[in-house]
Design goal:
Helices cover about 50% and strands about 5% of the residues. It is mainly alpha-helical and about 575 residues long. The chain has two domains: about 240 residues, Glycosyltransferase, CATH 1.50.10; about 160 residues, no CATH class.
């Protein structure tokens, strides 16, 4: 079957199945929440006030602005604001008073627990799940909040993040499963299915200002995780939502000529169909309005292009990284939509394989075979387009320039994690991981020190887990264990010192990470989940291997370069 006819058939299947699941879903929910839309976002409902607060920098974190909860109808607040500023702008103090009178500041997440001294980290994580769990009915009390209601309880990451996030949640689920909280794990997957039913895709997070973009598509992996516990009927249950997500990511594919792109799909000159991030709208992200308007003012590029590429980077989950910067250094050169990411396409391969499995369980051999063939085609594309033969690893591809990216990043482990790589490619990638990304505290995100949070020296729990899974899958148990135990030691040392698990870690110095648009936050959902899985696999007493002499030399050289760079930039 041709791509054109297959996509048209997919749309027909989706129409029938989407109706069926919508009907069954509504019947199952006693009182499902009324879904909000992007039209309910702060920038739409009370935009003039939002931009005034952001411009005045009343809060150090732009997300605090759009998470403010109006105390009355937003239209009334905007009307009052316009009356009070008709003749002159508000002073900073007057604006502070206006905000205090009209908005409630969102509650702070506090992951501090009253526990006995020396509480083991595993028990601490188990104790944290109730602290990070939110009930489905909480949003109903705040009709003007930017929070999107959900039908079932869910876990938030923590810190500034008081909503359910898409790709974070897969790694949280790993921990819930290891904590015997299958009830909560099932609830969260049901919530994601409900979001697909309502919006046709899974948003970045459950805020109205996130409803125009997604995040790395881990829903298929969530379904696989549940199926491993509950059996193959899980595939049948979520088949409509799996189809819907696939159709959303592949929109426009049947209209493309070679060398063109539309939305999330790129058709290369040789006809290969791959995916990219795009992010949706051509305006600043509401949660980073001031930062992004300032960024756009620093470049001669059209502001709309900068905003689209920034949103695409946010959709990638790696916000921000030099992976998305044309010069590999400055955010003013952000060009995310020109990049076809290797990790996204490995996830799409997994989605296609999962759909093949789901259709097989459903008893439709024809559709199962069709999706299995799509996965075969994508595997071939990944192993050719993204393979850097000279370097011996996977990297991203710039479809506009027709060349590989020179970024060396932990995204290279995705083809191993999802079984895409050939044994020879896996061996070569493992060698590069060991030589270029392994640090005393775990796996570093990229080899570049940029000040962005998705670059060196930071290491992130999901990338550690994906690397460990991929290396173990390709018979690299020693390297897998080394990464896992080094990261575990880093997390345990920070926990021993602070009593917290945090969002990201400095794996070069084996401490708390930094960089990015906001302060490091604790909680933290995906770190908790990955640690629970590593503890179950490698044990609480796992001893991390010491860095080799070569690694020590590389790390010392890296620190010298970083120090010299900092000295050069100092006033």
């Amino acid at each position: 079957m041709s791509n054109h006819h297959f996509l048209r058939a997919s749309t027909r299947w989706l129409s029938v199945l989407g109706l069926a699941v919508a009907l069954s879903g509504c019947a199952a929910l006693s009182s499902p929440p009324v879904p909000k839309t992007a039209a309910d976002s702060p920038e739409t409902r009370w935009g003039p006030v939002m931009t005034a607060i952001a411009s005045a920098e009343l809060y150090p974190d732009g997300k605090t602005v759009v998470d403010l909860i109006p105390l009355r109808a937003p239209a009334e607040i905007v009307a009052d604001y316009r009356r009070q500023t008709a003749s002159a702008p508000m002073s900073r103090d007057a604006l502070k008073a206006f905000v205090a009178d009209n908005f409630q500041r969102p509650p702070e997440n506090d992951s501090h627990l009253e526990e006995p001294a020396g509480t083991p980290i595993k028990q601490h994580i188990i104790n944290l799940w109730p602290v990070l769990t939110r009930e489905s009915g909480e949003v109903a009390d705040n009709p003007w909040s930017s929070l999107v209601g959900l039908p079932h309880p869910f876990v938030v990451p923590g810190g500034r993040f008081n909503e359910m996030f898409y790709w974070d949640s897969y790694f949280t689920l790993l921990g819930l499963v290891r904590s015997d909280r299958m009830d909560l794990a099932r609830d969260m997957v049901e919530n994601f299915a409900w979001l697909i039913d309502q919006y046709g895709f899974i948003p970045n997070g459950t805020r109205t200002y996130f409803l125009t973009r997604s995040q790395p598509p881990f829903f298929a992996a969530m379904v696989q995780l549940l199926a491993a516990k509950d059996g193959n009927q899980v595939y049948r249950h979520y088949l409509p939502q799996l189809m819907a997500e696939y159709s959303w990511w592949m929109r426009g594919a049947d209209t493309l000529a070679p060398g063109q792109a539309a939305l999330h799909v790129v058709k290369l000159p040789n006809g290969m169909m791959l995916n990219r991030y795009t992010g949706g709208q051509a305006r600043p992200r509401a949660e980073a309005w001031r930062v992004e308007t300032q960024l756009a003012a620093q470049t001669t590029r059209p502001s709309s292009e900068v905003y689209r590429d920034q949103r695409a980077a946010a959709e990638s989950g790696w916000d921000f990284s030099t992976r998305w910067m044309a010069d590999g250094e400055h955010q003013t050169t952000v060009n995310t939509r020109a990049i076809v990411p290797v990790d996204l396409n490995a996830l799409m391969f997994n989605l296609e394989q999962t759909l093949a499995q789901a259709w097989a369980v459903q008893g439709d051999a024809g559709k199962a075979e069709a999706f299995a063939e799509r996965a075969v085609v994508r595997r071939h594309a990944i192993n050719t387009v993204f393979w850097d033969a000279a370097g011996g690893f996977y990297t991203d591809y710039n479809w506009q320039e027709g060349m590989l990216s020179d970024a060396v990043s932990a995204a290279m482990v995705y083809p191993l994690a999802f079984g895409v790589a050939t044994p020879a490619q896996a061996q070569s990638t493992a060698d590069v991981v060991r030589a270029r990304l392994l640090r005393p505290g775990g796996l570093v995100t990229t080899t570049r020190h940029s000040g962005e949070q998705w670059d060196a020296p930071n290491g992130w729990a999901p990338l550690q887990w994906l690397a460990v899974r991929g290396l173990a899958r390709y018979d690299q148990p020693v390297l897998a264990r080394t990464i896992a135990t080094r990261f575990m030691k880093t997390v345990e040392d920070v926990y021993a010192e602070t009593g917290k698990l945090v969002e990201k870690y400095d794996v070069e110095q084996a401490g708390i990470g930094g960089g990015g648009e906001y302060e490091v936050v604790d909680g933290f959902g995906w770190t908790n989940g990955v640690m629970m899985d590593f503890l179950a696999t490698y044990g609480a007493e796992a001893t991390p291997s010491a860095p080799t002499e070569k690694e020590q030399a590389v790390n010392a050289f890296t620190r010298q370069i970083k120090a010299a760079s900092g000295a050069m930039m100092a006033p």
